[in-house]
Design brief:
By secondary structure, the chain is mainly alpha-helical. The chain folds into two domains: 6-127, no CATH class; 135-310, Lysozyme (Orthogonal Bundle). Helix content is 54%, strand content 5%. It has a three-stranded antiparallel beta sheet. A hairpin with a 5-residue loop joins β1 and β2 (86-91). α11 crosses α14.
Length: 311
């Protein structure tokens, strides 16, 4: 996304650009669509009512993640952290060179000067993640997950949201904390629900078994804890509302203890939407930046998935 006035940014940083050996700083955002290998109308989608989704669709924080998901890995989005103003798209090659030359902060200051931000305000450079969010791989899984979640009595919207953001292009992914598989389950969670996790066998790679474990975790832990937290914030929990489902997703990601600290720091609110938006800007205990972003990313990936199905 190019915006007017950015010539000033690059003129201010011209010396740095010449030092880095760049004759062009044009965006390299790809316009190539993901390869179609299966008909998209054969994919299932658990639908969120449009009147619930529209509120979050309009939020700049969600729109930023929508853009990041659409950008390829050879691009990076330049964003003002607090307002989520998307100021530019630059090449990943340029970003790498700025980092290597210790020129990132100077470039960030050029953006601040151009857009009228104070020196203390953060400018973020976020790399594109289109290759990670492989909807073609996720689509066929949603039907199977829906069946398992329905059997256990859990809204399959949770399966869809998790599958869209946890490891959509690599179900064998392992996080630095030891979470593995389609649902990025920790070993102790998997074992609690009867899955084998050993050096010779890891049932977290089994889609049916890991779907069952994730559904039971939602039923036994995430939803009950989110219910209590909503009540503590002065809200009436409604399991069919998107704001509540996003709160549940925060519990799934960060753990009840960390989310509870953040909800306590927020205090009482008037609406569930207000609670979620305040969580996006609240840090408490281990509930930090990645935790704040989790429901933003879940919402953005869902919206992009809907758009992808229609395209």
């Amino acid at each position: 996304m190019k915006v007017k006035g950015l010539n000033d940014v690059w003129m201010n940083a011209l010396g740095l650009m010449l030092f880095l050996g760049f004759s062009s700083v044009a965006s390299c955002q790809s316009t190539t669509k993901p390869t179609k290998t299966l008909p998209r109308d054969s994919f299932h989608c658990v639908i969120v009512p449009s009147e619930q989704l529209d509120f979050f669709r309009k939020q700049p924080a969600v729109q930023v993640w929508q853009k990041v998901i659409l950008l390829t890995k050879d691009s990076a989005l330049v964003v003002h952290k607090d307002s989520r103003n998307m100021m530019d798209v630059i090449s990943a090659k340029l970003l790498d060179s700025l980092v290597n030359a210790d020129g990132l902060e100077q470039t960030a200051q050029c953006y601040r000067d151009t857009f009228g931000y104070e020196t203390c305000e953060l400018v973020k450079f976020v790399r594109g993640k289109r290759e990670f969010f492989d909807f073609q791989k996720v689509g066929p899984l949603v039907d199977d997950a829906k069946r398992v979640f329905d059997e256990i009595g859990v809204n399959p919207i949770y399966a869809q949201l998790i599958l869209l953001i946890e490891s959509p292009n690599n179900p064998r992914a392992r996080s630095i904390s030891g979470a593995v598989g389609y649902y990025q389950l920790m070993p102790f969670v998997a074992r609690k629900y009867g899955l084998v996790v050993s050096s010779s066998r890891d049932d977290r790679h089994n889609f049916e078994l890991s779907s069952m474990a994730a559904a039971k975790l939602m039923r036994d832990y995430c939803i009950p804890n989110a219910t209590r937290m909503a009540m503590s914030a002065g809200l009436q929990p409604d399991v069919d509302q998107l704001w509540f489902q996003l709160l549940v997703m925060h519990v799934y990601n960060a753990g009840a203890g960390n989310v509870r600290k953040a909800v306590t720091a927020v205090g009482e609110v008037r609406t569930g939407e207000e609670l979620i938006m305040k969580l996006w800007k609240t840090q408490a205990g281990a509930f930090g930046n990645s935790s704040q972003n989790y429901s933003q990313l879940a919402t953005a990936s869902y919206i992009n998935y809907l758009d992808w199905l229609k395209s």
